[in-house]
């Protein structure tokens, strides 16, 4: 039975981290809200159910038969071994999950660069605070997070091609997405600092060239980044340097 | 061998969600930075290691032998079955993890009520923005998150005593901590809304009375809430109503 992914249509957003894993593995999945005649109504029907015992708080969530699994890192922890994108060693799976949760935290901070005060308001209603938060994000948080991920690659005893072990895992795919997203949202800031992250850039390039990923990126299933998603390009928030 | 918990000394913080599970289970653990002669230096030694392959981004992290596991939800996912605080059904473990990750998101938003702009600055340097963010948090986010958790209790086919299934899991303990923390940080706002969450308050009370938890709460190991932690009481951020 095909996996069912439930997420907003029209954006890459958090759903994209799951899509990349499913696409790399060539898994059979249905992106429910993008199906003709379905739309986000199918997603809200699950979220607003008054009888479903395991109702999710927010998208994305995955349905595998009767099981409903919410949260990107949780979905990937569940799918990883099934898709061949997790280590065989069970202890290392918690290491990968720990890295994925650090990606989750970073992505939440990316979101807050354009929504520092109130997620229910528009960006335009918190633009001045967004400028302050983005300046701090570029100055403090990008170096802290990317510096950390670069260090994990460098300290991998199996070599710097992968975050954990000597084979691709889903967190490698997620870091591809993080680098792509940051480069879209903050092109000047990233141009200023990219020399400091050679391992991450090499990982990004290697993922781009994987046949299933290359096919996916060239397909209409891969939406373009836009200003409705997590990674948004507002020139006034990018580095002035 | 005893589990080793690494977290800041002096605050409950995120480490408290792990402590509650270890204490409830009566597990053998060492709160490393609170040991005489250790302190946070022992924590930084792991985090700043240039040879450790699985270096954590931030505390808390758990050491179990050679395995280093970072992030609260990840630690609890790992410990849950070992401590008898996770469902026997493997699918349901992902349901519990999904709920724990929703707690994680909520706790991050609690933190941002006093640090909406820059985590590296003091609260006093972002007080006006903190007022705006806290107002939105009280108006929009507390009802959204607590309303969701209340609904999960209500829709549990096994009854509203537990979040998942018919026995205590670690996410029940985490929700105890969330209610305690919110009541400390935002007493007026919580007094205004608590009638809407009878299930969560009953769960909080039931957890308080569990023998191992009651013993822990009365011990010096349970630090008081304070203004260095996640849940901080700044009267000017609490509801004006």
Automatic annotation (TrEMBL), chains A, B:
Transferase keyword on record: yes
Organism: Rhizobium vallis
Gene3D superfamilies referenced in this protein's UniProt entry, alphabetically: 1.20.1050.10, Glutaredoxin
Domain (GST N-terminal): residue spans on this chain: 1-87
GO molecular function, one term: glutathione transferase activity
Superkingdom of origin: Bacteria
Keywords, ordered alphabetically: Transferase
Domain annotation GST C-terminal: ranges: 89-237
Gene Ontology biological process terms, A to Z: glutathione metabolic process
InterPro entries: Glutathione-S-Trfase_C-like, Glutathione-S-Trfase_C_sf, Glutathione_S-Trfase_N, GST_C, GST_superfamily, Thioredoxin-like_sf
Pfam families per the UniProt record, alphabetical: GST_C_3
Protein name: Glutathione S-transferase
